[in-house]
Amino acid sequence: MGLTGLAIFKQLPKTNCKDCGQPTCLAFAMQLASGKAALDQCPHVSDAAKEALDSASAPPIALVKIGKGEKEVALGNETVLFRHEKRFEYPTGIAIAVKDTDGDIASKVAGINKLVFDRVGQIHSVNLVAVVNASGDGAKFAEAAKTVQANTEFPLVLVSEDPAAMGSALEAAGANNPLICGANAANLEAMVELAKKYDAPLVVKGNGLEELESLVEKAGYKKLFLDSGAREVNKVLADQTQIRRQALKKFRPFGYPTITFADNTDPIQAVVDASVYIAKYAGIVVVDSADPADLLPLITLRLNIYTDPQKPIAVESKLYEIGTPGPDSPVFVTTNFSLTYFNVQGDVESGRINGYILPVDTDGISVMTGWAAGKFTPEKITEMLNTSGVADKVSHRKVVIPGGVAVLSGKLHELSGWEVLVGPRESGGIPSFIKQRWGA
After folding, report:
1. CA-to-CA distance for 84 and 297, rounded, in angstroms?
2. Helix (H) or strand (E) holding 401
3. What is the model's pTM?
4. Which residue ranges form the domains of the chain, and what is each CATH number?
5. pLDDT tens digits for 177-218?
6. Strand-pair partners of 226
7. For 2-51, how does the pLDDT look when each residue is reduced to its tens digit (9 = 90+)?
8. CA distances (Å), origin 198, targets 76, 93, 115, 202, 223
9. Is 391 helix (H, G, I), strand (E, B) or coil?
10. What sign results for the dihedral spanned by CA atoms 378, 380, 383, 387?
């Protein structure tokens, strides 16, 4: 996989100067080996050592970028087979296909631009538009690429195996670093020349993994995406898994992100196929549908898979107003774990309650876990009550805490001076609790 801490230590200055932030060079070497530090943190490493370590410590899958500006898509730099080993780095890019035979391309692209979803307080969208040369006409393909480029900020994937057609499309869109999707055994040299001319990333497609390996080595180009050529979902799954395994063993021909195509004519099966590819290592998945109902499950799945398992999704710890609260409105305390917060928010809203929610910063963990870990405490809740500004917005001094942590109520009242109401154990009970207890 990579160098051990001791192997890295042999290349370091061994001065224990602490300039890297670690107490010793050995400690720094161990951090490098585990991927928790970067070599440039050591200002004293020699050029020779840097060259050796950079090569050995480089991620097994190269980082490749598509597009420019805010919508640029970066893929690669993956270091593990399973997410729980560390984390996955760059979420799968979802590309929506637009064929050059489509009727109103500008309108379809406008619809793609609107594919934006709010999930647990975060805004997510698709990432690329794949312009497909379905007509076989180079001029029509170039015109489609030009139209798409003029109507979206998303990076483009230009899909054609005809070098002449690709060249025409690149004249229209090549300045924006599109992904050239079309190198194979028959056109490899011409496609590599186009990629070099526009300094753009290139998809290399093989007829199986053996041919893919050979083509990558022949290409002699480093900004690549891999396509095994498989289209049946079981074969794609097998190839994706094998490519990732070999890449992690530092098999260089497979050390690039991949591209897959979920182009089943059955839209439900296409979503299922895309889900498999997202779960199993696809750098990009190209789908035909621009229907939000098809894409929302893919966006949600991607969010779940590419969340850092060591860093739960959290909302900002601040005062939130639900509805149009006034001075008599209830104040609810919870944690800033996204799932917990949005459950509370949803149940307050469904009960048509105008109120305030204070999510205490527990490093993104739930109520009971935060209490057990000493992160959801009377002291932290009191600090939140004092600093959030809620005291200036309400005329009362009553706060509702989750029923599972009723044990906090006495100390919280003592520290804050607020009357503490022990709410339901589950947020679904908030509406009935407020009707029965608030104002009583």
Report:
1. 22
2. strand 398-401
3. 0.76
4. 5-57 (1.10.15.40), 64-305 (3.20.20.20), 320-437 (3.40.50.11600)
5. 999 999 999 999 999 999 999 999 999 999 999 999 999 999
6. 204, 258
7. 578 888 898 899 999 999 989 999 999 888 877 677 788 899 988 888 87
8. 21, 22, 29, 10, 12
9. helix
10. negative
